[in-house]
Structure formats: C-alpha cells, structure tokens
C-alpha cells in the first residue's frame, strides 16, 4: 500500500514538473515579418507582391549538363569512399562551375555494386556521396548548393555479376538541377 501511494505521489510530482503554466489556447503570437495580414485571412490580398521566386522547370539540356567537357562520375574502389587522385581535377572543375553559378544546385548520388546487404550498401553509397560533397565544400562551394543521396545498389549503371560491371557501379554521380 505504501509503494502505491509513493508511486502515485512521484507521478504527480513528475507531471507537475513538466507543466509550463501557460494555457495552450492563450499563447502569445508575435509577428516579426513586418507584413500586415490581409483583411480576408483565406488568401493573399489582391495585388500583393509575393516574395517567392518562380520555379524554372524548363531548363535546357545545356543548363542541366553543368560545366562543358567535364565528366560527372567519380569511381571508387571496393568498399571504399576515398576519392582517388585522378578524380580531384573533375571535382575542382565542378567546384569552379558551382562557385561561378551560385544559383545552380547539384545532387550527388552515391551508388554501390550488388555485393553486400541493402542497408550496408545504402550506408556506403551515402558515405561516397558525402565524401564528394565534403570535397566540394572544401573547395568553397556553399552547402546550400549541394545535396547528397544514396541509392545503394538499386540503380546499377551496368548489369552484370563480374568485376568489370562492379567497377562501373561503384560510383558517385553529380547531377545538376
């Protein structure tokens, strides 16, 4: 009986410590934007200027390509996310292009070969894309221009079950958006 009373008192004390004392239906809201709300709260006032930039969905193929005559694929050794020296100039070229075109964005897609489990390959693909992302950031590309994702072994470049196929699938691709 004493244990139950003690347990109930402890639970009441914990719940009392968690309360904020502010009623949820009376929380003050402060508008720091300096924009007054329209009289009709259902939508923006007619003739009001929007601060949202328009989306350009019809980029030409040249715009999607990124820098001219520069490859977009970095290959990795087996079970490695270390960038080989022969791909450093490729990454430097993309970094120069991105710094000169600060409105452009890239997605770095990490891939693996078919060996290994799905979770392991997703993690390895992510490490590969993150290593390219870090290299771009070290070369001065802002973080806001670069996104990294992993496809693991789900999108192979080459179908096959030999070393030549696996070499083509261990990669990170730079895709311009």
UniProtKB/TrEMBL annotation:
Question: What's a GO cellular component annotated to this UniProt protein?
Answer: cell outer membrane
Keywords, in A-Z order: Cell cycle, Cell division, Cell outer membrane, Lipoprotein, Membrane, Palmitate, Signal
Which N-terminal stretch is annotated as signal sequence?
A: 1-24
Domain named OmpA-like: residues = 63-177
Q: Where is the stretch described as Disordered?
A: 153-177
**CDD domains per UniProt:** OmpA_C-like
Q: Which GO terms describe its biological process?
A: cell division
Give the subcellular location.
Answer: Cell outer membrane
Q: Does the keyword Ribosomal protein apply?
A: no
Classification via Pfam families: OmpA (PF00691)
- Keyword Membrane present in the record's keywords: the answer is yes
Classify the protein's membrane topology as the record does. Answer: Lipid-anchor
Q: Which family does it belong to?
A: Belongs to the Pal lipoprotein family.
Listed under subunit, the entry gives: The Tol-Pal system is composed of five core proteins: the inner membrane proteins TolA, TolQ and TolR, the periplasmic protein TolB and the outer membrane protein Pal. They form a network linking the inner and outer membranes and the peptidoglycan layer.
What this chain does, per the record? Answer: Part of the Tol-Pal system, which plays a role in outer membrane invagination during cell division and is important for maintaining outer membrane integrity.
Name under which the protein is recorded: Peptidoglycan-associated lipoprotein
């Amino acid at each position: 009986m004493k244990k139950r009373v003690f347990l109930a008192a402890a639970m009441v004390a914990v719940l009392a410590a968690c309360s904020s004392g502010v009623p949820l239906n009376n929380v003050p809201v402060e508008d720091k934007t300096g924009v007054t709300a329209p009289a009709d709260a259902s939508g923006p006032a007619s003739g009001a200027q929007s601060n949202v930039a328009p989306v350009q969905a019809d980029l030409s193929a040249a715009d999607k390509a990124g820098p001219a005559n520069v490859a977009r694929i970095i290959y990795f050794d087996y079970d490695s996310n270390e960038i080989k020296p022969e791909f450093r100039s490729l990454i430097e070229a993309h970094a120069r292009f991105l710094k000169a075109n600060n409105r452009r964005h890239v997605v770095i897609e990490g891939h693996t070969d078919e060996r290994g489990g799905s979770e392991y390959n997703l993690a390895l693909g992510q490490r590969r894309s993150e290593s390219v992302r870090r290299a771009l950031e070290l070369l001065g590309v802002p973080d806001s221009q670069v996104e990294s994702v992993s496809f693991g072994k789900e999108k192979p470049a080459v179908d096959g079950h030999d070393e030549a196929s696996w070499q083509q699938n261990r990669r990170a691709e730079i895709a311009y958006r």
